[in-house]
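Would you be willing to look carefully at the protein I have copied below?

:::
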Amino acid sequence: MNTLIVSQDLVPELLPMPACIDVMAGALGSLAEGRAVLPLRNLMWMPGRAGLLGLMPGYLGAPPALGLKVISVVQGNHGTDRDSHQGAVLLFDTTTGSLLAMIDASSITAIRTAAVSGLATRLLARDDAGDLAILGSGVQASAHLEAMRAVRRLRRVRVYSKTEAQAAAFARHHSKTTGLRVEAAPSAREAVAGADLICTATSSAEPVLSGDWIAPGAHVNAVGACFPSARELDTRAVVSSRLYVDCRESALAESGDFLIPRSEGAIGDDHIVGELGEVVIGRVPGRRSPEEITLFKSLGIAIEDLAAAHHIHARARAEGKGIAVDFGGRRLAYD
């Protein structure tokens, strides 16, 4: 059986943001219903913590998907022509175990991460939310602008980056490509002032968003920090919010945005209202009032990659795209 190779430039065509948001809803709903196997990710650091190799296996019952994302994360790539996240998603047939596809992981990670934030925004943000603040100016900042546009009508967009020139370049580029007025803010505090949608997509290990700055009724998507010792939000920001996660087990093991306030005694495990998939299937309520602050903490989980890969593979096969390789898997026979 042929294995389909799908390159980075083809993934966005086969996985447009609006479609990916719906795919993520299905995958996270399946997780909430118990139709998934999701071990915690395995991380191997290189000497000196110059970078890591992440292994994220999983199984999804609906749509049926079995596989693994293997990805390198090298923060030193920031500011170069290389993405900080590079690798492949391997998709296997759930019946025969055959390798169905090898798909670029950089593009899947960028799209599906923002799509899950788009889903969280669709479920948790006020219907009239449209004043967006983005902290960060990299790949995820761009993807999150696209995701927010897919689920809410944006009135205003502000971006802040610790590198002023990058924020200015982001604002110029996206003002031109979206037709929106995207403003570069001189500080994180000024970027989020009065915003009812906030996305933190930075590589910072220290808080970039203070709870004192968040307006009543805002919805926050926090996607940058993914280690127990790192966080983008200060304790007050987490304490004052209704907290939702993609996977409770992952949040309890890996999320510094949650674990650090818990270690300070500011919150307990019950501060997590529920998983996003539980909101999808109606098991857990979403926003309760226009004034409350909702927070979605994203870590990124393997079933999101697998659901995205399943969608890409199906479309590529149907449309005759990608490169088919006879990769093997047949039993050797003897005369």
Notes: The chain has two domains: 3-108+302-325, 127-297. The chain has a mean pLDDT of 95. Residues 3-108+302-325 form a domain with the ornithine cyclodeaminase, domain 1 fold (CATH 3.30.1780.10). The chain has eleven helices and 16 strands.
